[in-house]
Specification:
OB fold (Dihydrolipoamide Acetyltransferase, E2P); flat; 2 helices
Length: 164
């Protein structure tokens, strides 16, 4: 499907709101604010420039992950499809812009995060642990050999960010 691809870097400016659809699909909506920064040539001070506030919508599993991971004030990077919605309020024509997110994540240039990958074991005959991971991942020596940076392999998915 064609569409206008956009990437926005900014902060979540509203609460992350969960709004399930009538058929039970998860839907999350929030707004991102992004402010241009530039250095004034005369004063050599950094100043705020133009501001952008734009709505973001996430669906299904991504919506669940965003709701569990991000909150108002978090620095984020959003990639998705840009769309406009025209409407009339009173007698005035208005337009609203919104991103349907393909990817959402914490902006790691402004803090650190811990990521937990969501793993699925559908249709597999491999034995799984209580978190649905292959049982062989429980052996720490396997994790250390299988993960070149020595991290952990864990179950349910979410990321938490700490701005710095």
């Amino acid at each position: 499907m064609n569409g206008t691809q956009i990437t926005v870097v900014g902060n979540i400016v509203d609460d992350v709101v969960v709004k399930p659809t009538q058929n039970g699909d998860s839907r999350v909506a929030f707004r991102v604010g992004s402010t241009e920064r530039y250095q004034d040539r005369e004063t050599k001070q950094w100043v705020d420039g133009k501001k952008l506030f734009i709505g973001v919508v996430c669906w299904r599993e991504q919506a669940d992950n965003v709701a569990a991971s991000l909150q108002k004030g978090d620095p984020v990077i959003v990639v998705g499809k840009l769309a406009s919605h025209q409407y009339v309020r009173g007698e005035e024509n208005r337009i609203n812009f919104e991103i349907t997110a393909q990817s959402v994540g914490p902006d790691l240039s402004r803090g650190s995060a811990t990521f937990t990958k969501r793993r699925r074991m559908s249709g597999s005959s491999m034995p799984a642990d209580a978190d649905g991971l292959p049982a062989m991942y429980e052996d720490e020596s396997y994790v250390a050999e299988g993960d070149p940076i020595g991290g952990e392999l864990v179950g349910a998915g979410h990321a938490s960010a700490q701005a710095g």
